[in-house]
From TrEMBL:
Gene3D superfamilies the record matches: P-loop containing nucleotide triphosphate hydrolases (3.40.50.300)
UniProt catalytic activity: CMP + ATP = CDP + ADP; dCMP + ATP = dCDP + ADP
Domain named Cytidylate kinase: residues: 6-223
GO molecular function: ATP binding; CMP kinase activity; dCMP kinase activity
Annotated EC: 2.7.4.25
GO cellular component, one term: cytosol
This protein's record includes keyword Metal-binding: no
Gene name of this polypeptide: cmk
Protein name per the record: Cytidylate kinase
PANTHER family linked to this entry: CYTIDYLATE KINASE (PTHR21299:SF2), CYTIDYLATE KINASE/PANTOATE-BETA-ALANINE LIGASE (PTHR21299)
Length: 230
């Protein structure tokens, strides 16, 4: 059966990466978490001191971009993890600190250009499921299946809050809710590749869906598209 490209975009914490990973496993496709790449660049900028609460030295970040090498490697369980300059940073990129700075970093066109090029190379052979904000609009405008995920901000924040609590991150629900809203705002209003639903994307609101419902809904869409039924 011929392989297709699947683009999953949407607001933060809608469940994109969970469903994209499940779909890729089921279809035996490659899964790419494009958000992890923006998070890894953010971790790099934080470590270098290019961004902090009081300043953002955009030019220094741009000048240092050639140094930033990113790759995904599978761990023992077969789950892809991100490596920044050869270091596994899968855990370090998921902190609240990185979440607070990632959207400003993702507004920088030079950062986007570099990451989009790498993402397009990873999808060259099709058989890829990629999630992010601009996958159906910019990275793979010709993707055969585009999904746009949505859920209420409160639902999304409570899911993310639970996840952070389970990991022992000391945050309040309000901090998570504010971060989710702030990122949605920056991501959808930035000049370069703003978050928006592609004209040919199928919208899935999963406010009332659990992980299983959401997986079956989207898997059905993928099967229908692969079989040419939709
Ligand atoms: O998982 P979560 O929804 O919290 O975010 P993510 O997918 O890890 O992405 C983190 C941030 O990276 C987003 O809020 C965007 O600012 C940026 N991003 C982007 O601009 N374009 C993408 N294709 C993916 C992520
Ligand atoms: O990638 P994105 O930020 O869109 O979301 P995610 O990391 O896949 O999901 C965020 C959290 O919400 C995870 O802990 C998921 O297990 C949870 N979730 C859920 O409980 N029910 C859903 N229908 C979707 C996500």
């Amino acid at each position: 059966m011929s392989k297709i490209t699947i683009a999953i975009d949407g607001y933060s914490s809608t469940g994109k990466s969970t469903v994209a990973r499940q779909l890729a496993d089921w279809l035996e496709y490659v899964y790419v978490d494009s958000g992890a790449m923006y998070r890894a660049v953010t971790l790099f900028a934080l470590r270098k001191g290019f961004i902090s609460e009081t300043q953002f030295d955009k030019q220094k970040l741009i000048d240092s971009l050639p140094e930033v090498t990113l790759e995904f490697r599978k761990n023992a369980e077969g789950k892809a993890e991100i490596f920044l300059k050869g270091e596994n940073v899968e855990k370090q990129i998921r902190t609240m600190e990185v979440s607070e700075y990632v959207s400003p970093i993702a507004t920088v066109s030079e950062v986007r250009r570099k990451l989009v090029e790498q993402q397009q190379r990873m999808g060259e052979g099709k058989g890829v499921v990629m999630d992010g904000r601009d996958i159906g609009t910019v990275v793979f405008p010709n993707a055969e299946l585009k999904i746009f995920m949505n859920a209420s901000a409160e639902t999304r924040a409570s899911r993310r809050f639970k996840e952070l609590q389970d990991r022992g991150d000391k945050v309040t629900f309000n901090e998570v809710l504010e971060n989710v809203k702030e990122r949605d705002h920056i991501d959808s209003t930035r000049k370069d590749s703003p978050l928006r639903k592609a004209g040919d994307a199928i919208e899935v609101d999963n406010s009332e869906m659990n992980l299983e419902d959401q997986f079956h809904t989207i898997l059905q869409l993928a099967k229908d598209r692969i079989a040419g039924r939709i």
